[in-house]
Amino acid sequence: MVFSPIRSILKRRLVIVFLAVGLLAAGVLSFLQLPLQAYPGVAPVTVQAITQWPGRSTVEVEQQITIPVENALASVPDVQSFRSVSLFGLSVVTVKFKEGVDNFKARQNFVTYLSQANLPPGVQAALSPDSDATGEIMRFGVEANGVDLTTVKTYQDYTIYKELKHISGVADVSAFGGMVKQYQIVPTPEKLQAYGLSLKQVIDAISNANANAGGGLMKAGEQQFVVRGVGLLQNIEDIRNVTVSVANGVPVRVRDIAEVRIGHNPRLGMVQYNEHDDIVEGIVLLKRDDNASEVLARVRDKIADLNNNILPKNVQIKPFYDRQNLLDITMGTVEHALFVGISLVL
Predict the structure, then answer these.
(1) Which of these, 260, 284, 262, 280, lies nearest to 270 by C-alpha position?
(2) For the chain, what percent of residues have pLDDT higher than 90?
(3) Do residues 173 and 283 touch, judged by C-beta distance below 8 A?
(4) What pLDDT, in 10s, does the model give residues 193-240?
(5) Predicted TM-score (pTM) of this structure
(6) What contacts 64, CB < 8 A, 6 or more positions away?
(7) Is the pLDDT reported for residue 1 higher than 70?
């Protein structure tokens, strides 16, 4: 008797039905767990060396930073192209690697060769975030009622940044707008001359006063106590009370020769949004090869936690661009096309 697959299937209809249902369930489960990436990173691995040298001219930056960095990176393997930009106080050297190069290996080689660059004292190059051209997944503004922009910027740099940066899949959180807080000491030249002091003496006195010191351990019976000297400056009054020198047995403090105040760095730009002329903005960057939808879900949860439990009630994070909207539209278009195509085939 000749074997007939169709006759065998017809004799075991119940088994075939159970197998079909099981296969369908496995397919649905696999589809639900399938990582969907609407905009995968197709650009080659690109790494930047970003170096700041405040106050220096473009020519100095080019000669003493950009060229040494380019020379150090010239031997990095698997490089496709170099590009560099020298600006006032800023150098950016961009290295684009060949297709198929492993991202981790490329960045590791980049760091290794960059460390050989001979840069001026106190200047250190930093790497660009581990993101790509499509890495921008969220933009948000920090709205505050009755709070000055300097304080809002401080919340962004020291609270919001730290919380969002620790989220798995977030490469970096870039901030724009606002003013960076500074404790400013403005000496009076006449008073410096009267006490016979120089500006360097004032700087050295403040630097020496702003430090903690460790003193080891002190035994007390069966216990030991940690001994340390607390000297970090905490507020404006601490800065005013720093002793610069002694004149005729009387200490000369910072408040005697200078004005101490809270100010901000010189501004290089500002962010405007709708009716708001000046806001603090944050941009969340996706780590290369991570899933945008999953990372965005974690970012939204963390923002809700920041708004409800960590930030003051009058300081709130308000996202105004969320890539999930674009992802949903894109995936909806793909699902519609697949459904129509499968239906027509069936």
Answers:
(1) 280
(2) 40
(3) yes
(4) 988 888 899 999 898 888 877 778 888 888 888 888 887 888 889 899
(5) 0.78
(6) 53, 56, 119, 120
(7) no
Handedness of CA 292, 294, 296, 298 (dihedral sign): negative
What residues have CB less than 8 Å from 108, skipping those under 6 apart? none
Per-residue pLDDT, averaged over 85-111, amounts to: 91
Beta strand segments in 124-189, E? 126-127, 136-144, 170-176, 181-187
154 in the Ramachandran plot: left (φ > 0), alpha (ψ -120 to 50) or beta?
alpha
Calpha distance 289→171 (Å, rounded): 11
Closest CA to 320 of 270, 269, 275, 268: 275
How many residues can be counted in the chain?
346
Give yes or no for residue 3 having a pLDDT over 80: no
8 A C-beta contact, residue 275 and residue 112: no
**Confidence class of residue 87 from pLDDT cuts 50, 70 and 90?**
very high
Distance CA 21, CA 186 (A): 79
Residue with tokens 């019976």: 221
* H helix or E strand, kind and range, residue 66: none
Residue 76 has which token pair? 């990095």
